[in-house]
Amino acid sequence: MFLVDPPIKVLIVDDEETLRTHVAAYLEDEGFDVTTVADGETALEVLRRNPADVGLIDVRLPGMDGDAVILRGREICPAMKFLIHTASASYTPPAALVSCGIGQQDILVKPILDLEVLVAAIRRLANRSTA
To answer: Are 93 and 102 in contact (CB under 8 A)?
Structure first.
């Protein structure tokens, strides 16, 4: 009997609808279970009801910024891992995020031209191989 891991659950938080739709479609085609939202407050509501394995979080969001979403999201889902998705090539995670284990390897600059880079990062954080 073969045991199959359930799909990796990914939460995409970005206020750019086209980006959310495009990235979600790609990840779904790769076998991920994807939920998308446009703002931080909605992201936290979703996490309370449906925890995710990995979050792809934009830094600049309406209302609560991405850094705050990550910090509050970790309170709700302590095992959840996060990738930061930003248009700012000079973004550096603040000390509070670094203390949560987020480093430069977890920052992806928009636009991601090769979405396989995103797939590999999600699998790395979820500790799942490409098998």
So the answer is: yes
The span from the CA of 33 to the CA of 118, in Å, is: 14
Residue 99 CB neighbours (<10 A): 10
SS3 12: strand
Q: State the Cα–Cα distance between residues 26 and 22, nearest whole angstrom.
A: 6
Please state which CATH number belongs to domain 9-123: 3.40.50.2300
Which whole-number Å values give the CA distances from 66 to 78, 82, 105, 114, in the listed order? 17, 10, 17, 23
Show pLDDT as tens, one digit a residue, over the chain (131 residues).
Answer: 555 578 999 999 999 999 999 999 999 999 999 999 999 999 999 999 999 999 999 999 999 999 999 999 999 999 999 999 999 989 999 999 999 899 999 999 999 999 999 999 999 999 864 44
Tokens found for residue 93: 């995670």
